[in-house]
Amino acid sequence: MSDTQRYVAFALWVFALASTPLWAENYTVRMAILIAMFTALTLSWNFIGGLTGYPSLATAAFFGLGSYVGALLQGAGAPMLVAWIAATVFVGVLAAVFGVIILRLRGHYFAIGSFGLVEVLRLVISSWGSLTGGGDGLNVPLVQGGPNAVAQTFLAVMVVIMVIVFVVTVLVDRGRLGFGLRCIQQNEDAADMVGVDTTRFKVYAFTLSALFCGTVGAAYASWTGYIDPTDSFSILMTIKVPVMCLLGGAGTLLGPVVGTATFMILEEIVWANFLDYNRAILGAFTVALILFLPGGLLRIDYRNLVTRFAARPGRSGAPA
Amino acid sequence: MTVSLLSLDAVSKNFGGNHAVSNVSFTLKEGEIVGLIGPNGAGKTTLVNVITGVQRASSGRICFGDLDVTEQRPYQAARRGLARTFQIVQPFPAMTVLENVAAGALFGGAQSSRAEATDVARKNLEFVGLAGFADRPASALTLAGRKRLELAKSLAMQPKLLMLDEVNAGLNASEIDGALTLIRKIAERGITILVIEHLMKVVMSLAQRLLVLHHGQLIADGVPTDIVDDPRVIEAYLGGKFAERLKGIRQHG
How many contacts (CB atoms, under 8 Å) link A and B? Predict the structure, then answer.
């Protein structure tokens, strides 16, 4: 698949999501909003987890932080867009600072360290009741308009964020930064020896992976109108995002997009049909995925698969 | 009088109470080929690690040209023109051979764009004889091929000093001859080379000067013919029999 084909595939997908209000009911539109939102998160995770090979579990930390910064600013009277941008910048700066500290860790240690960020921030937000409302959560000024209008607005917002992250991914992937990150992913010591400033590159990647989680978090807060610490700093989210990315193919351009869509549609089907066991089924699915498909859906050689099926003895008379 | 390119002044590296490198001083002049020999565990690789900033010297001073580089990080060493190959090859396995070399050109060399870096990479692949493998993944190369890849990658960084850490280890006789020809060709470009070797045949035929490490100490520094006669070197490394044979080769060959 050439890059152009990838861009076209993505453009078609953007169009499919964005056009849901025209051809589907509200339930599907809501689903499209969530898919766009999670795709933005997965594409973000791809910077650090896919390109750089650092298995971050900090997604929910940045999402939660973004939602609180956005909600607090909107509560203080800032316009919605200003609150979102401020949340993005704030989360980015904080991620750079955290990154300098925890990027000294590698592999599993880094995963645990980044996971620590989620818990620490959740506890700080829960305990700082005077500012954040603690466990009671925060109300965010509601967006004016009926449910349909609100859904359409936030569909547009999430799709735009998703497209921005995708474009940034393409730019990074084609440039010096992306090349350096791939070197780090392959062999960090060797990257250092050929002149890649590994510390700086990793901090860039970590910051990129956080920035848009902040935007998405702030937009999510405005959409739902109410946030609380357990919902914003959700452990499930911090696990789900890497799983989605791995499902599609970490480090690839379309992997996060394909993975998110597949996972969320599967989740919806499982949820609807197995109310009691849905988490167990998704868990088993995740384990099976890592065992049997470590490279993700996009790493399967589909053409080869088709030829192999066609060449099976008995099915066709083709000579070996 | 040639200018000194790299100079070490009383450099030591301790790991706890273990003195891996102690009080080593020497100078490399521009354009020289110098061999660094010594028994296993003598501290040869540690010394290279200290020079390139992978490990920091416990004491002493390292100067590259006029610059004090004692505290440098590996990526800075690479950009300043200090390249090295690893004893255990370190490719980017899933990238193509071409991309591996382009990484050296882009980050360590002077190239500013990926297209330029790729051009330089192609030239260097041709130079080491790997042009036919440019689009194969690095993991598909044989050991000899990977050693050549390491060389191409280092050369793409346009180094002033190239440190070759056992580039010949694990190669067969004909592969070694190929590697030797290649190293001589690199030297002809005016690049200063420090060859870390176990194979006396290799250093004797390449180096203009030899440094001998033993238990982390520099026990000899001189032209190869003198080194072979040095009783301390014979005792520590060569052994009496081998020294006789080397002398024999010299007289009759």
Answer: 71
- Band the pLDDT of A258: cuts 50, 70, 90: very high
CA distance B203 to chain A (A): 25
Identify whether the C-beta of residue B130 lies closer than 8 Å to the C-beta of residue A233: no
Pairwise CA distance, residues B155 & B150, whole Å: 9
Average pLDDT, rounded, for chain A: 91
Q: Does residue A317 belong to any structural domain of this protein?
A: no
The whole-number pLDDT of residue B203 equals: 85
- Residue A319: inside a domain: no
Q: What is the ipTM of this complex?
A: 0.86
- pLDDT tens, residue by residue, A213-231: 999 999 999 999 999 999 9
Contact criterion met (CB below 8 Å) for A178 and B107:
no
Residue A301 domain flag: yes
Q: Is A315 contained in some domain?
A: no
Set of chain A residues whose Cβ sits within 8 Å of the Cβ of B114 = 174-176, 179
| Residue pLDDT, tens place only, A269-297 | 888 888 888 888 878 887 887 788 878 88
- The Cα–Cα gap between B207 and B82 comes to 19
Give A196's contacts in chain B (Cβ within 8 Å): 75, 103, 107
Chain B residues inside the 8 Å CB shell of A198: 75
The answer regarding whether domain B1-81+160-180+191-253 maps to CATH 3.40.50.300 reads yes
Evaluate if residue A316 carries a pLDDT over 50: no
pTM: 0.89
Chain A neighbors of B75, CB-CB under 8 A: 192-193, 195-198
Closest CB from B95, B102, B107 relative to A186: B95
Region for residue A131 given its phi and psi (left: phi exceeds 0; alpha: psi -120 to 50; beta: otherwise): alpha
Range of the domain at A260: 3-310
CA of A185: which chain B residue's CA is closest? B92
Give residue limits of the domains in chain B: 1-81+160-180+191-253, 91-159
Q: Residue A193 is nearest to which of B78, B102, B106, comparing CB atoms?
A: B78
* B42/B206 Cα distance (integer angstroms): 21
Chain A residues touching B91 at Cβ < 8 A:
187, 190
Residues 33-72 of B with CB under 8 A from A: 52, 54
CA of B76: which chain A residue's CA is closest? A195
Tokens coding B125: 């692949």
Q: Residues near B14 by Cβ (< 8 Å), separated by ≥ 6?
A: B20, B22, B58
- Are B136 and B98 in contact, with CB atoms under 8 Å apart? no
Number of domains in chain A: 1
Measured distance between the N- and C-terminal CA atoms of chain B, rounded to whole angstroms:
32
Residue B147 CB burial class (10 angstroms; 0-12, 13-18, ≥19): buried
Q: Does B203 touch chain A (CB under 8 A)?
A: no
What is the three-class DSSP state of A233? coil
